[in-house]
Amino acid sequence: MSNDEQVTIEGPVCPLPLTHGNQIVMGHGSGGRMSHELITGLFLPPLDNPILRAGDDGGVIEVNKNRFSISTDSHVVWPLFFPGGDIGRLAVCGTVNDVAMMGARPLYLTAGFILEEGLDIETLEKVIASMRSAAEEAGVLIIAGDTKVVQKGKADSLYINTTGIGLIQNGIDIGGARAIPGDVVILSGSIGDHGIAVLGARGDLGFETDIQSDVAPLNHLIAAILQTSNRIHVMRDPTRGGLATSLNEIARQSQVGIVIQEESILIKPAVNSVCELLGFDPLYVANEGKLIVVLAREDAQQVLMTMRNQHYGADSVIIGEICSEPQGRVLMKTSIGSTRVVDMLTGEMLPRIC
Amino acid sequence: MSNDEQVTIEGPVCPLPLTHGNQIVMGHGSGGRMSHELITGLFLPPLDNPILRAGDDGGVIEVNKNRFSISTDSHVVWPLFFPGGDIGRLAVCGTVNDVAMMGARPLYLTAGFILEEGLDIETLEKVIASMRSAAEEAGVLIIAGDTKVVQKGKADSLYINTTGIGLIQNGIDIGGARAIPGDVVILSGSIGDHGIAVLGARGDLGFETDIQSDVAPLNHLIAAILQTSNRIHVMRDPTRGGLATSLNEIARQSQVGIVIQEESILIKPAVNSVCELLGFDPLYVANEGKLIVVLAREDAQQVLMTMRNQHYGADSVIIGEICSEPQGRVLMKTSIGSTRVVDMLTGEMLPRIC
Q1: DSSP label of A99
Q2: Does the pLDDT value for residue A44 go beyond 60?
């Protein structure tokens, strides 16, 4: 692909300050470029080890010849309840999914609660009931917990950390660095639903939408995929930072180029309308029940069929392929025939989306 | 023991409101009675399973004949830095210790950060350096992380969740329900240091103290104990709620009585002075580097010697024994010859101590 075909568009417009001296700003929690800079610049150097350095959704450990995937996520979504889900369902699904992305079968979760003084007990009950139902759907048990309470004004109602562990079957070797040129990229459905649903629940839109969050446990979908093909190379759920950021992570980790087709990417009309109105690019809006699969071309059609037969994969499509170049970059063939460089999210578009 | 010998003293004075309608209050985070009521009344019914119900410091799971202990803790200590430690050291040691209390060798930790917008990067760097050094001392790796940022005023600088996993060797079966009459209770050193050190750092005392927190990883001490005896029945670190609350938990879980000797319990003079001045009972003040061991009487002297030879066990003493009654209660023979019922902590004495 020659450079003169390319029209470079910088990351999406960022309404929040990028830097403020030597202080943490909202962009550090975006999941995009600033989060990556914080992690690689501040967290990794002192804590460095090969597992952490891999930079995948879950850390893979081996104990007595058993390989496990372990992942942790603190959930600070606001508001607590939104169309299609709540912080409880999100906390369970988010971690189940991150564990499963390494090809593991999620088994157990822990849950750590930070409660703000004055929180209604009834709210907490609803959240826990939702965690129970999500855990049942995913088939995982919550086996350890912790509750801390902080004074009024020192938290925003309720934060939940979940950490999960899953077992990786022998022969499975999935990771962000395993994409190879020629591989095909499948996306399991429409993008942007979660981010726009949460934004709508904040009442900031000034109009009503019926957009529902896609928050869901993807482990059964993943189990079906792994039964269909043993040539799955990468799986990732495009959460914070959206599809664009996840694809950029894979391109960097695998040192490959990724070329996607704009017209193959499903965006619900209502999501598209809100994004156009607010100047958001849906490629950067968070999802909580979607899956990117990078796999050998030979198995792509069969895996696509398997995915479409699963509830959470019914709208799966092939959106692109892995190329040898441009290394570490993502290109999109637009519907008008041009090629656009799709960068990582810079700054923060929608804070506290998960 | 006849009832007429007993002088019942209710739990310590509680300066914070116990209940406020149907809302969460600070006492729900105390680690004492209200925390237990919240857990058993609200969290356990929907999430119930045998592992969670055991109510131990770590949940014990078995995967392909390997037994693991998993524990989670969110750390909200204020201030972040205090004599003898900081939130980073606390976050690593707290979880290492909870994992190790089940007789496991801690292997890996995850770390989930909730950062408040405006936090100084330098502060975060110091905390991470401290986590690194505590992890090195404990011999564990941090293998997965997560960073969220919330708006100014929605957190208090920095909260850290750590979750840990450790491997339990075959033949080890330790848990809060395993104390049996005739067992001996060993305590690894002085009590109350952590709570009073943190309180002092708040500047609320109106005078200076040189009390240092005892925050430390206890896994090497525990490994030495397990090499000395295979008749260790219970281990617990008396953190939130202090020695009194941990002993009450053991008495309830094992359905035994525990009788301790007041004069055997080491309290540093400076800690004692502050407690007397503020009306605190040191039995209820948090520790972060102390260990209660309940074990067969035959091995008590040898384990005591082992513990005294370890850095974090140098001041170990036998403080009491397990009796068949009064079931579920803790009695203390006071230095003036009377017997006092030592109840769980009611309400909250020192909020955000860990």
Answers
A1: H
A2: yes
Q: What is the pTM of this model?
A: 0.94
Report how many Cβ contacts below 8 Å link chain A to chain B. Answer: 266
Spatial neighbors of B164 by CB under 8 A, at least 6 apart, are B58, B70, B71, B72, B95, B96, B98, B99, B106, B108, B109, B110, B140
Identify the CA nearest to B101 among candidates B111, B109, B93: B93
For B145, the closest chain A residue by CA position comes to: A72
Above 90 in pLDDT, residue A2?
Answer: no
Nearest CB among B107, B148, B163 relative to A110 is that of B163
Per-residue pLDDT tens digits for A93-136: 999 999 999 999 999 999 999 999 999 999 999 999 999 999 99
Interface test with B, best of A22, A24, A65 (most B CBs within 10 A): A24
> How many other CB atoms sit within 10 Å of the CB of residue B10?
9
Please write down the long-range contacts of A295-299, taking CB distance under 8 Å and 24 or more positions apart.
Answer: A295/A183, A295/A184, A295/A186, A295/A229, A295/A231, A295/A232, A295/A233, A296/A182, A296/A183, A296/A184, A296/A229, A296/A231, A296/A233, A297/A182, A297/A183, A297/A184, A297/A321, A298/A231, A299/A228, A299/A229, A299/A231, A299/A232
Residues of chain A with Cβ-Cβ distance to B132 below 8 Å are 46-47
**Angle in degrees, CA B86, B88, B91, rounded to 5:** 110
Cβ distance A28 to B147 less than 8 Å, yes or no, reads yes
SS (H, E, C) A140-192: CEEEEEEEEEECCCCCCCEEEEEEEEEEECCCCCCCCCCCCCCCEEEECCCCC
Of A23, A145, A351, the CB nearest to B72: A145
Residues B212-250 have pLDDT tens digits of: 999 999 999 999 999 999 999 999 999 999 999 999 999
User: Which positions in chain B touch A116 (Cβ < 8 Å)?
Assistant: 24
* ipTM here: 0.94
